[in-house]
Amino acid sequence: MKAIVYTQYGSPEVLELRDVEKPIPKDNEILIRIRATAVNSGDVRLRKADPFAVRLFFGLFKPKINLLGSVFSGEIESIGSGVQRFKVGDDVFGHTDMSFGTYASYKCFPEKGSIALKPTTITHQEVAVIPFGGTTALHFLKKASIQKSQKVLIFGASGAVGTAAVQLAKYFGANVTGVCSTINVDLVKSLGADKVIDYTKEDFSKNGETYDVIFDTVNKMSISDSLRSLKVCGTLILSAAGFSEMVQGTWTSITSSKKIKVLNGIISHTAEDINFLKMLIDADQLKPVIDRTYSLEQMVEAHTYVEKGHKKGNIAIEIY
User: Fold this and answer.
1) Are 216 and 238 spatial neighbours (Cβ–Cβ below 8 Å)?
2) Is residue 278 part of a domain?
3) Which residue range(s) make up the domain with 218?
4) Predicted confidence band of residue 82 (pLDDT cuts 50, 70, 90)
5) Residue 241 above 90 pLDDT?
6) At what angle do helices 130-143 and 271-282 cross, to 10 degrees?
7) In the prediction, which pLDDT does 111 show?
8) What is the Cα–Cα distance from 250 to 195, expressed in whole angstroms?
9) Pair (124, 28) in one structural domain
10) Distance CA 212, CA 144 (A)
């Protein structure tokens, strides 16, 4: 099968298209013919080993996992003898968590993993981009115990996590303010944001508004400046935080007179979460946002574009 392989950390050029052995499902696994995946910030961080801590978990000198990609949509080609939830021919989508491997034509997946039947109303490319931002936003909004009518500010509202967070926060009944650049204001408004702040023209931390939850999806917000905009006992979400930001966030939660809660770290998700996202898609309350679509053979180009940091929503990869 075709796959994008990397055997060393570095620039997008370390990604190579190769023919590799097609996997065979175990008794409790399904074999998925992948039709679409996506390039996310997590893929870029692993490819570059940036931050350095990536090497402590995924290989100090070279990557232990040679196939990136954590989200997918496709159809089931075969199943293990013990599989009961799915059948051959089912269209499915989901998130591989830490097993990765969706930059390929096929992937074996545990029956009980974070997977659900694909919504029939959108394409493989459209649904494949939802699990990364969707599970990240859902994980942190649930941990923040978001409540109806709370004021939520989402910094980086036009990215993969941001576009999902805006829609999910609105679904939970929050009053949502999105922060993005000028070119993305209309996009964020179209996703349901009650207010959009153009960060090139206005600093949200200086306008006097306060919020119950501030959600930084891109690790480009000043933690110290944002505190003045957070209510007493508010929640600060740092979903894209590096090690230094995690330390700063922890210190802030301990020392702040506002008694704030700071959330960061690795997310978790289940099939229930993927099915929840499916339900929202079916109800037209969660829409994919795709900036560009590339083929598997164009993976280097796709990574190069994502690394520039200016994408709107997601980058889809079509696999023929």
Assistant:
1) yes
2) no
3) 132-263
4) very high
5) no
6) 110
7) 96
8) 29
9) yes
10) 10
Percent of the chain with pLDDT over 70: 100
pLDDT digits (tens, 9 = 90+) for 176-189: 999 999 999 999 99
Predicted pLDDT at 246: 84
What does the pLDDT read at residue 59? 96
Q: Residue 65: which of 83, 43, 80 has the closest Cα?
A: 43
State the pLDDT at residue 245.
Answer: 86
Describe the crossing of helices 41-48 and 299-307 by its angle, rounded to 10 degrees: 100
Rama region for 227: left / alpha / beta (φ>0; ψ in -120 to 50; rest): alpha
292, amino acid identity? R
Residue with tokens 């006097």: 208
How would you class 229 by CB atoms within 10 Å of its CB: exposed for 0-12, middle for 13-18, buried for 19 or more?
buried
Global model pTM greater than 0.90: yes
Q: What 3-state class would DSSP assign to 189? A: helix
- Residue with the two structure tokens 């802030």: 252
Both 297 and 238 in a single domain? no
Answer yes or no: do 44 and 142 share one domain.
no
CA distances from 175 to 147, 149, 186 (A): 10, 6, 17
Q: How far apart are CA 63 and CA 292, in angstroms?
A: 27
Indicate the number of domains in the chain: 2
